[in-house]
Amino acid sequence: MTPLTFHAPANDQPGAQANFCPNCGQPVAPTDTFCPNCGYDLKAAAQAAGQVQPTQTQPTNASAPATRRPRQPWSKKKKRLWWGIGGLAVVLVAFFVWGSSHYSRAATLDRTISDIKSGQHLTADFTSASTDLTLNKQKLLPVNRYYSDHARDLSKLKADLASSGRSSDGNFVYEQTGRHFLFFPKYQISVSPVYPTVTTNHTGNVISLDNHKIATATTDSYTKKLSALVPGEYHLQSKGRIGGHNLTNSGDYHITSSKTYDLQLTTITVDLDTVPGSAVYLNGKKLGTADSSGTYRLKNEPWSSDMAVYAAYTSDIGKATTATTKLKKSDDGSYVDLDYKDMMAESDADELISNLFEAADGLARFGGIDDATDDDGDPMSDFFVNGASNAYYVDLKKMAKGYNDNDDLDSIGMDTDVTAVKPGPNGTSIVTFTVEYTFGLTNYDYDHVQDFQYTATVQPAGNDNSSQSYEIVKYGHAVKTDDRHEDED
């Protein structure tokens, strides 16, 4: 049978619908359950088509503005994250700025020099340049021991390390040895060890280093080479019994090279000649005081190659010190002079004072002159520092003219005597002298005699065109020592 063909109504007919079978394309009625042409299940196809919505394209209005999706606010977690990142960045920048300054070459050297002086953190400041020297706090103490008492040498060490990176003796090298926190340079002082040798002269002598026994002599010419040491100050000692006497040879040594130190046990007797009343020192330790003749006897003192003596004199105006003199073995049984630099001889002092009062005596006799002179024609003002402007010259001139103006005096005489010359500070001399004033009295048959004692501070003449080799800085108040009448001759 030939299937019937149905034609769909035109689209422009009222109520018309253009429905077609999705399988064969033939028109179907809206009420058909199956396609009358091919039998296709239209209801199932309609249900399936209803689940998938066709995509509709909305017309675009070109003139309408685009609508932006509103921005969502940050969560607290996100805010904390970004604040943390920002804070970390600030901390890192500050850390790098601080580290670049703190670990710089100059700043590290400043801290290291401070540590050397205080004895703190030395193991962090130093490293060893040799495999046979392992550093620890105890081994580095000799560095602190020396430089804490020698500020000038510590300043020189700092200057040498800052400029060339090496100490003048080559024992210390300032260099970069690593890094701090991977970013900043690490600077340390690299130490080259020294290997000193000690000798002693008697079997059984006990040798000590910093009060720790290191050897006992097995022969009368014993030598021992010490293990690696950090350059610095050490206390070496040899102790034994010789001729029934317990002897010790000890001293502090600044060991900076691999040289030999003699710790023989021998004695020395020396007469040290200096100014009476001076304190006498051996290796910085006071031994005693020079007697009235200026002698101090150093008797049976254990001799060492490092023995050094000096004298010091203390007065009301300060302290004077002689140069340090090293004692030699050959000085045993002899005299050693401990002289004060620039201290004037008593003969020079006597000449100075005598000529000064000779000029003053002339001014007292002939008051009309402005500035009297001594027999050599030297004006009185030349005897004083700063000449006529010196206050003590003015006083002496005033006194002499006062005697000349006194109508009760027929005559005046001034005789001087230097009784002592002592050393003063800074190259000065302390001159003690007496002046005997003899006053011839009008209408009396005797002379009035008075003795006064003075103490003057004298120094070598400066470049002020003075005619004198020495000049008076000042002198103290006169002290009357005698007052008497003497019959006229």
Automatic annotation (TrEMBL):
TM ranges: 81-99
Pfam family, one: Zn_Ribbon_1
Chain segments carrying region Disordered: 49-75
Keywords from the UniProt entry: Membrane, Transmembrane, Transmembrane helix
Positions of the TcaA 4th domain: 266-339
Residues covered by the Zinc-ribbon domain: 20-42
Nucleotide-binding found in the keyword field: no
Biased composition (Polar residues): 50-64
UniProt-listed PANTHER family: MEMBRANE-ASSOCIATED PROTEIN TCAA (PTHR40038)
Protein name: Zinc-ribbon domain-containing protein
